[in-house]
Each structure stands twice: as C-alpha cells, then as structure tokens.
C-alpha cells in the first residue's frame, strides 16, 4: 500500500487502507501508546466535637473537608482520535478535567 492508491489514506503515522482485502495485515487493536496521565489529588479533613458536660458521650460533631483533584492543574488529554478519515486522526483533541476544589461540611447531632 502506498500513497495515492485507491482507498489509501495518507496520515502522519503512515498510509492506511480503509477496506483491506481478506488476509491483508491490519493494525492490531490497542496498538501504540496513548497520552500520559499525571494527577495529584489531596483531601484534608478537620473534625470539631462538643461533649456533654454530664456524661462522656459525644454531644455534637462538625466535620469540614476540602478535596482538591488535579492539584497541580496538569493538562491531561483524552485518548487519541482513531478515525482514519478525520482531520484529527492521531491527535488528542479533548482535555480531561482541570483542577477542582470541593468544600464540604457535615454536622452530626
């Protein structure tokens, strides 16, 4: 298969045939490497408690939590586009989630 042949698609990764003949070599599934993923997630929790003065049992409790996903805000990309006829073939044209900060409060009584 070479560029210019009928049914050939020329890409930066080589020349591919859209309808290969039976028995012709094809690219195996999950061949190659995708984009790398690097993320740091952190959660911090603080509990505040008030006790009943008459007995040692717990009276009230409040818990505050802060959770941060993708702390370093590193750009992580989704899988590469694998559609041969797409102009985005072989590129990651979508980013995954950016940094997210979640604050939560829980009150027990």
Compact summary:
This protein is mainly β and 109 residues long. It has strands at residues 8-11, 14-17, 42-51, 58-69, 100-108.
Structure write-up:
With about 110 residues, the protein is an all-beta fold. The chain has two domains: about 30 residues, no CATH class; about 80 residues, no CATH class. Helix content is about 0%, strand content about 35%. The strands form two sheets. The protein has a three-stranded antiparallel beta sheet with strand order 3-4-5, with no helix packed on it. It is rod-shaped, with a radius of gyration of 27 Å. It starts with 7 loop residues before the first strand and ends with a strand. The model has no long low-confidence stretch (mean pLDDT about 85).
Shape: rod-shaped
Pattern of helices and strands: EEEEE
Helix content: under 10%
N-to-C CA distance: 73 Å
* Quaternary state of the chains: single chain
Q: If helices are DSSP runs of H or I spanning 4 or more residues, what is the number of helices?
A: 0
> Quick one: how many beta strands?
5
Query: C-alpha Rg, in Å?
Result: 27 Å
> How many structural domains?
2
């Amino acid at each position: 298969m070479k560029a210019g042949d009928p049914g050939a698609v020329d890409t930066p990764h080589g020349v591919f045939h859209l309808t290969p003949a039976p028995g012709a070599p094809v690219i195996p599934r999950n061949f190659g490497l995708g984009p790398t993923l690097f993320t740091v997630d952190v959660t911090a929790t603080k509990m505040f408690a008030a006790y009943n003065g008459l007995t040692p049992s717990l009276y009230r409790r409040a818990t505050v939590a802060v959770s941060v996903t993708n702390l370093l805000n590193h750009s992580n990309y989704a899988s590469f586009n694998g559609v041969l006829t797409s102009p985005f073939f072989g590129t990651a044209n979508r980013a995954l989630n950016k940094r997210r900060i979640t604050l939560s409060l829980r009150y027990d009584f």
